[in-house]
Specification:
The protein has 280 residues and is of the alpha+beta class. The protein is globular. It has three domains: 78 residues, Winged helix-like DNA-binding domain superfamily/Winged helix DNA-binding domain (Arc Repressor Mutant, subunit A, Orthogonal Bundle); 64 residues, Alpha-Beta Plaits, CATH 3.30.70; 90 residues. The strands form two sheets. It has a four-stranded antiparallel sheet with strand order 5-6-4-7, covered by helices on one side.
Length: 280
């Protein structure tokens, strides 16, 4: 098991660029100039060479497209695929508390031995979407993840290998016990605790302040969002009644919501964009 709390706190530049576009860059009218990307990433400790190399990698993956601004400056805009990925991410990152009785979606797949690499990719993607393993070739997640999972597998041309089913768990083991078997709850809790260790002190510091300076708000919000946005994928938002008492995911979600409410709009001033209000 990877001990998240022992990993370096400094986020990867490529991840921060994706986070920047998700939080602010997609609301820019036209491409974001390269010079502006360098300015905005410098505020969170990323130097210019790292920005350029990370942008190149995102360009090769088809997520960023080179374009010119109205004034002729070189810049980058999101591809249609990237926009769809960010919209899928919004439904996770800014989700309400999960319903107690939404049911489950099952993904059952069979991949020919001659295409075993696709089997590996399929397993990796289902795990990355927050699915747990109910049995070999049978993956399970809260039912609300069905649409996003369908979109993801279609983008990867993996949908032909998968059947989806929706239903409820009827036993024999109590559902809370089954959930503890399908997901590694200890590892998920550790990731939430790591988020709290890094960002709960930031929230407490802001709660003691009267003003919200835009540059500081931008920096703290971008770093918090970059940490938080991965959690709703590893932890799919399981119903609270099925989780251990004092589940840290409840506290980490509350910290992120409070940081978002305090910092997001002020950070937009530093980023030079107008963002839609998103109340959590």
């Amino acid at each position: 098991m990877i001990n998240v709390s022992e990993q370096p706190v400094q986020p990867a530049p490529r991840s921060l660029i994706v986070t920047l576009y998700g939080a602010y860059g997609r609301f820019v009218a036209g491409p974001v100039p390269v010079a502006e990307l360098i300015r905005l990433l410098a505020a969170v400790g990323v130097d210019a060479p790292s920005v350029r190399s990370s942008v190149s990698r995102l360009k090769r993956r088809g997520l960023l497209l080179p374009a010119r601004t109205e004034r002729g400056a070189a810049g980058y805009e999101l591809s249609d695929q990237a926009r769809e990925l960010l919209e899928d991410g919004d439904r996770r990152i800014y989700a309400d508390a999960p319903s107690a009785d939404e049911g489950w979606v099952l993904a059952v797949f069979s991949v020919p031995e001659s295409q075993r690499q696709k089997r590996h990719v399929l397993r990796s993607r289902l795990a990355g979407l927050g699915f747990g393993t109910a049995a070999p070739g049978v993956w399970i997640a809260p039912a609300r993840l069905h649409e996003e999972t369908r979109n993801t597998l279609r983008r990867l041309d993996l949908d032909v290998y998968v059947d989806f089913f929706r239903g409820e768990h009827l036993g024999f083991a109590p559902t809370a016990q089954a959930v503890a078997r399908w997901w590694d709850l200890a590892a998920l809790a550790e990731q939430h605790e790591a988020f709290l260790d890094r960002h709960a002190p930031v929230l407490r510091a802001w709660e003691r302040r009267a003003g919200t300076p835009p540059e500081e708000a931008y920096r703290d919000y971008l770093l918090a969002l970059d940490s938080w946005r991965h959690l709703p994928y590893t932890d799919p938002g399981l119903p609270a009644r099925l989780l251990p008492a004092n589940w840290p995911g409840t506290r980490s979600a509350a910290v992120f919501r409070a940081l978002h409410a305090r910092l997001h709009e002020a950070g937009a001033l530093y980023a030079g964009v107008s963002v839609p209000a998103r109340r959590l």
